[in-house]
Design a protein that fits this description.
Blueprint (H helix, E strand, L loop, with lengths): L2 H19 L2 H16 L3 H13 L1 H22 L2 H13 L2 H12 L7 H13 L5 H12 L10 H10 L3 H22 L16 H25 L3 H15 L4 H4 L2 H4 L3 H19 L2 H9 L6 H16 L1 H15 L4 H16 L6 H10 L3 H29 L1
Helix pairs in contact: 1-2, 2-15, 3-15, 4-9, 4-12, 4-15, 5-6, 5-11, 6-7, 6-8, 7-8, 8-20, 8-21, 9-18, 10-11, 10-19, 10-21, 11-12, 15-18, 16-18, 17-18, 17-19, 18-19, 19-21
């Protein structure tokens, strides 16, 4: 049987694993078992590959980055810095539309599924009478997830950067136009229905409000700045922010010590390690190396093929899994793809996740607003299809200059 058939079976195994268990680690293990069985990899070789994957630099850096980000999140929660930043935004803009979009986006700078309920409360309070429940759920989820399209505080971005070898700073700079497109599309489709006037008079100066925003989020700003300006690994940038935050926010040992345990999210770390093991086991079969020749025979451009692969793959198995499976394949198929290709693929996966049943935030936000998954997906599809059309145009434009 051909590699194509084998890969379809492996994808199907992951899809079925997610469908019946709702657990990404178990689903990826199904993919590992399917790969081992189909390619007849012996047990000793599997153990050897798995051991190397666990101690690989990419795996270690990724795990440390996730732990550090979660630790920093605990610190911000302890000082209520995210709520402080949101109040500061009210004082700066006194604009309902800006608050409804920017506050969830700022809250979304940290990878916490539970944060979507905070966004939901903000959106519901500001848009009652102007948007229905389905539209409120869309706005809360959509704007909260915009940072997930590009920030290195998210697992999929870190994995994508590590696997592609593209500089983090170049990726972040290249994503600025697409982030602007995301904000604009949300406004065009839904947010324009909301009046801009807050209906209240702010008794705080703009300067003081801006100070509140900065004081609430300075550690996040610093983390991103260190990555962009000095190309620091994500875990190192977060570590610097954590150490400085201990002194700036005057954390006591009694406050900090419980965070060493609470920041250790075992499920996330185990999921990361299993994904890395799967990546290396699949790579050992040689299927990824052989696939570009097969794909080159199809009568459509290679980048369109990968848009389809990343979109449907992310909907079915999640963006993390499709990054591991298809990102190395894409970069070997399109030599010199660089920043434009990474932006194309990461944005496609991000867009697909906004309608994916594997996206836990969608389950949380639909429950919060009392709607079902189909209702929010219906509101989301026109926006993400428009986004992908803009994305294709941007990719072709970048290809002329990079």
């Amino acid at each position: 049987m051909s590699d194509t058939v084998y890969l379809v079976i492996i994808f199907t195994a992951i899809m079925l694993g997610i469908k019946f268990t709702k657990q990404l680690p178990i689903a990826v293990c199904c993919g590992i078992l399917a790969t081992i069985t189909l390619y007849r990899i012996n047990a000793l070789e599997v153990l050897k590959i798995s051991a190397y994957a666990v101690i690989d630099k990419v795996t270690i850096y990724t795990v440390f980055a996730f732990y550090g980000i979660t630790f920093l999140q605990r610190m911000l929660e302890r000082r209520q810095d995210l709520k402080r930043a949101q109040k500061g935004l009210d004082g700066i803009f006194n604009n309902r539309r800006i608050n409804v979009s920017l506050a969830p986006a700022l809250i979304g700078t940290l990878p916490s599924a539970g944060a979507v309920t905070i966004c939901g409360a903000i959106v519901k309070e500001a848009t009652n009478g102007y948007l229905n429940k389905e539209e409120q759920a869309f706005v809360a989820s959509y704007y909260r997830h915009i940072p997930e399209s590009f920030l290195p505080t998210y697992q999929s971005i870190i994995i994508g950067i590590e696997l592609s070898g593209v500089p983090m700073s170049g990726f972040l700079m290249g994503m600025i136009p697409m982030v602007m497109v995301l904000f604009t599309l949300g406004y065009v489709f839904y947010l324009r229905k909301v009046p801009s006037d807050m209906g209240v008079t702010q008794n705080i100066s703009k300067w003081q409000a801006a100070k509140e925003v900065f004081c609430g989020l300075w550690s996040l700003f610093l983390t991103v700045a260190l990555i962009m300006m000095f190309n620091l690994p994500a875990f190192a940038a977060v570590l610097v922010s954590i150490v400085l935050n201990i002194f700036v926010s005057r954390f006591s040992w009694q406050e900090i010590s419980p965070m060493f345990c609470s920041a250790f999210e075992g499920k996330l770390i185990i999921s990361t390690i299993i994904i890395m093991v799967f990546k290396d086991i699949l790579a050992s079969t040689g299927a990824i190396v052989r696939m570009p020749e097969l794909l080159s025979r199809l009568p459509i451009p290679a980048f369109l093929i990968f848009i389809l692969i990343f979109f449907f793959g992310s909907v079915i198995s999640g963006q993390q899994a499709i990054n591991v499976i298809a990102l190395p394949l894409a970069f070997s198929t399109i030599p010199g793809g660089g920043i434009p290709l990474l932006i194309l693929l990461m944005c496609t996966g991000y867009a697909a996740m906004q309608i994916s049943p594997t996206h836990v935030c969608l389950a949380i936000v639909t429950e919060y607003f009392g709607i079902n998954m189909g209702q929010i997906v219906k509101k989301t599809i026109p926006v993400i299809l428009s986004f992908i059309l803009c994305l294709i145009g941007y990719y072709l434009l970048l290809g002329l200059f990079i």
